[in-house]
Amino acid sequence: MSSAGLENAIIDFRNISAGGEWLKEDLSCRAFGYAPATADWTDVMDGIMFTRVMEPATPIGAGKLNAYNTLFEYSVEQRFH
User: Is the pTM of this model over 0.90?
Assistant: First the structure.
């Protein structure tokens, strides 16, 4: 995506357009941290977000953090249970 000149992009692996069949091949990606991994990512996740510039996280107040954690835990439970 970097070589395509994109600053930010979201690739939807659920609805791959004509010409996007190459996305189903084993591709190298740093999807989980900085370590490269190779996989057919369409079998691993629904999509991927690309950002050319990565910024550090900004701390938020404990009240908001608890609300986000609750929402995340609920989402995970609904998806995987």
Answer: no
